[in-house]
């Protein structure tokens, strides 16, 4: 992610959560951790977070894939729970 994209993410968080402030230190820190990540993933996770949480996200909420959404669907009848 670029620095501009990081600032955009932080501004979205601030718009959604009035207690979240965008500061120079926060921009620098967040960019350090967001830079190696894909903008689409970060925005997807931010959207999910805003839709479901009443508090601002941590960096970790935005950078790791949501395993529940990433898993392939397997019908329950096809799962071999006993290893037989």
Question: What portion of residues is helical?
Answer: 55-70%
- SS class: mainly alpha
Distance between the termini: 46 Å
CATH superfamily: Replisome organizer (g39p helicase loader/inhibitor protein)
Q: Regarding CATH, which class?
A: Mainly Alpha
Number of distinct helices: 5
**Radius of gyration, whole Å:** 17 Å
Textual characterization of the structure:
There is one protein chain. Helix 1 packs across helix 2 (24-34). This protein has one domain (3-65): Helicase, Ruva Protein, domain 3. It has 84 residues and is mainly α. It is elongated, with a radius of gyration of 17 Å. The protein has helices at 3-16, 24-34, 39-52, 59-63, 67-70. It is built from five helices and no strands.
Record keyword descriptors for this entry.
84 residues; mainly alpha; Helicase, Ruva Protein, domain 3; 57% helix; elongated
């Amino acid at each position: 992610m670029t620095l501009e994209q990081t600032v955009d993410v932080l501004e979205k968080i601030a718009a959604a959560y009035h207690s979240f402030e965008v500061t120079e230190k926060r921009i620098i820190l967040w960019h350090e951790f967001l830079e190696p990540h894909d903008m689409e993933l970060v925005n997807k996770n931010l959207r999910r977070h805003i839709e479901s949480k009443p508090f601002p996200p941590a960096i970790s909420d935005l950078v790791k894939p949501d395993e529940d959404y990433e898993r392939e669907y397997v019908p329950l009848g096809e799962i071999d729970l006993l290893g037989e």
